[in-house]
Design a protein that fits this description.
The structure is a single chain. The protein has six helices and no strands. The chain is elongated. By secondary structure, it is mostly helical. Helices cover about 65% and strands about 0% of the residues. Helix 2 packs antiparallel against helix 5 and helix 5 packs antiparallel against helix 6. The termini are far apart.
Length: about 200
């Protein structure tokens, strides 16, 4: 069995500190959400779906390279490892940008707050849900670091399904609350990738 590079020396010294750095702000958001009480009705269970999908996607990225090592990505493993780490960092930087742009409107659960308004600056100029795009990059980066094609596909598809559901729930809540301005916002931007989807 070929041991994935994030489990080997010296790559582990790169991967695991980056992994922890990526998830520190994520854990803060989840703990803040849990301490604020039950999710509001407009969330429609999407936070739970998102947590399950993200956990399963990450678990697949870690596990599948160990049990399906024949599905190794072609080419040098170190290239995939560094592409994965760079993708992981890029996803986290985009997420942190979204945290700053949304400010208090960034919450773990779908929540319409008093004075809620449309944000169309920063990365929101290009797509409707850049923070979800960033989370997908994080999942992709983890899977690429492990260098397993099956892990990449299963992880990304699992996360994509979870974030697609969450995006639909959030869009319905924002349409109900903000009306025509949000409808125009939706009509002029793709969901996750500029000009594509």
């Amino acid at each position: 069995m070929t041991i994935p590079l994030p489990y080997r020396w010296p790559q582990a010294l790169i991967f695991w500190p980056v992994y922890v750095w990526v998830f520190i702000p994520e854990f803060r958001i989840i703990s803040r959400t849990r301490s604020s009480g039950p999710a509001p009705a407009e969330d429609r269970g999407s936070l739970r779906v998102l947590c399950i999908a993200f956990t399963l996607a990450t678990f697949a990225a870690f596990l599948l390279p160990l049990i399906a090592d024949r599905a190794t990505l072609p080419g040098p493993r170190s290239v995939w490892f560094f592409c994965g780490v760079l993708t992981l960092v890029a996803g986290s930087l985009l997420r942190r940008h979204c945290f700053r742009v949304l400010g208090t409107f960034f919450t773990g659960a779908v929540t319409i707050q008093p004075g809620h308004r449309l944000i169309d600056t920063g990365a929101y100029r290009w797509v409707r849900h850049p923070s979800y795009s960033a989370a997908l990059l994080i999942v992709l980066g983890i899977a690429l670091s492990f260098g397993n094609l099956l892990g990449v596909v299963v992880s990304f598809v699992t996360a994509f399904v979870g974030y697609s559901y969450r995006a639909r729930v959030e869009e319905q809540a924002l349409l109900a609350s903000l009306g025509a301005p949000y409808a125009r916002f939706m009509a002029t931007r793709k969901r996750f990738i500029p000009f594509l989807c």
